[in-house]
Amino acid sequence: MNVLRNRNFALYSAGNIVSWIGLWMQRLGIGWLSWDLTHSAVWVGIVSMAQFLPIIVFGPLFGVLADRLERKRYAIAVQVAQMGIAGLLWAACAFDAMSTPVLVILCSAIGISSAAHQPIRLALVNDLVPRELLQQAITINSVLFNTSRFVGPALGGIAIASVGVASTFAINAVSYLAILWSLTLVELPARSARPASRGFAGDLGAGLSYVLRHRPILQLMVVAGLTAFFARGAIELMPAFADAVFNRGSAGLATLTTAAGAGAVAAGLLLSRTGSAGREAWLAAHGSVAAGAVLALLGFTHEFAAGVAVVGLLAFATTLCTIGMQVELQSTVDNDYRGRVVSLWGVVTIAMPSVGSTLIGALAHWPVLGTLGGLSNVTVGCGVVCAALAWLSTGQLRATRLTSRARGAASDCQNNRP
Question: Which residue has the higher pLDDT, 143 or 88?
């Protein structure tokens, strides 16, 4: 692909793939550690939410900074902070200081650093490549991220089984050296800090207003949010599925997470070959509906081999939706608002899965629900709700796009009148 010949993108991608492998090893370690400490799907969801809930609270604030500050230095500072947190996770395990409260606190710190990292991670892609390569860059960036999602859990499962969960945190801390190296080498176009003409609160409000005014962008976020909340929320509960449903322990968790990564990579490769923005949008819309249907199927699945296949399909469908919607979003948004808009996108696509996993885990343990109790049955119900809401939302999105095109065609005809 032409984008891989771009020096900046190639350097950035090389550093990222190493760092992301370490990140997925750490995520597997945190997921298994939360289950090993508590044996509760509720606590697995709470630990997941501790990592991602701060994105909801702080993500939009960091989005303002991503639009106002010099992005390269900001990105380096965030990576250094994340490396330090990984080191603290390792130390807590290595010196027998780890407990459920300590894990929640450190995961909250991860969440705050992720809130800072999310807008700059997405906004940097736009700065690294010319506009004509942006669609390729977003797709390949996602393919590489999900490739690490395939490799990282496999290596993490081996590390946990052979030398213990603390090793996943140590490896992740070291892996940040790769992305720090690449960030020092990339060359970004000159970009002065944005003047605080409206103040911090004013800039934040302007970003929110921009999203609300642009109905297609808002609807993209709604569709992606539904898929993230239900389908990706269930993926966050893989530690509970691995042990409580399939009885396979940490090795089963690594296999399920690797299957999810493989499905996501396959979806990214498919999107990279479409060659048509309209085709991508079509696949993304249908991926959101399919994700709900596959989620319901997961609830009916009790054999491990079938579960691996269903989890791969679930990740495939959710990735079709997420990448396709992100490409359309990035191609639409004004660059002056990019950091703020993608920070809100991060709230939707990164934080919502943790909220969804907490809800699904809580419902699974709520005896009042009677026949709906239990993780498998609750998963079936959530899948049905996800598919139905996604179908309605994608219908509204299609209607809005057709209306926008009709207005654009009418405007062109009017402008071409003699």
Answer: 88
| Cα–Cα distance for residue pair 288/398, rounded to 1 Å | 13
The winner for highest mean pLDDT among 15-29, 48-62, 224-238 is 15-29
CA–CA dist 140, 158 (Å, integer)? 27
DSSP 165: T
Q: Which of 161, 123, 100 is nearest to 326 (CA)?
A: 123
Q: Which two tokens stand for residue 10?
A: 């190639």
Nearest-angstrom CA–CA distance, 211 and 363: 32
The pTM for the full model equals 0.72
| 102 burial type by CB count under 10 A (0-12 exposed, 13-18 middle, 19+ buried) | middle
- Alpha-helical regions (H) of 186-334: 199-213, 215-227, 233-235, 238-240, 249-272, 277-300, 304-332
Tell me what percent of the chain is helix, strand and coil, each rounded to the nearest 5.
90, 0, 10
The Cα 159–Cα 165 span in angstroms is 7
CB 188 within 8 A of CB 127: yes
Q: How remote is the C-alpha of 394 from its chain's centroid? A: 20
Residue 330 CB-density burial (10 A; 0-12 exposed, 13-18 middle, 19+ buried): buried
Q: Taking all residues of the chain, what is their mean pLDDT, rounded to a whole number?
A: 83
Cβ distance 286 to 236 under 8 Å?
no
- Pinpoint the alpha helices (H) of 69-99: 71-94
Closest Cα partner for 120 from 173, 81, 72? 72
Structural class in CATH, domain 2-183+200-405: mainly alpha
Going by C-beta distance under 8 Å and a sequence separation of 6 or more, which residues neighbour residue 166?
A: 29, 89, 90, 93, 94
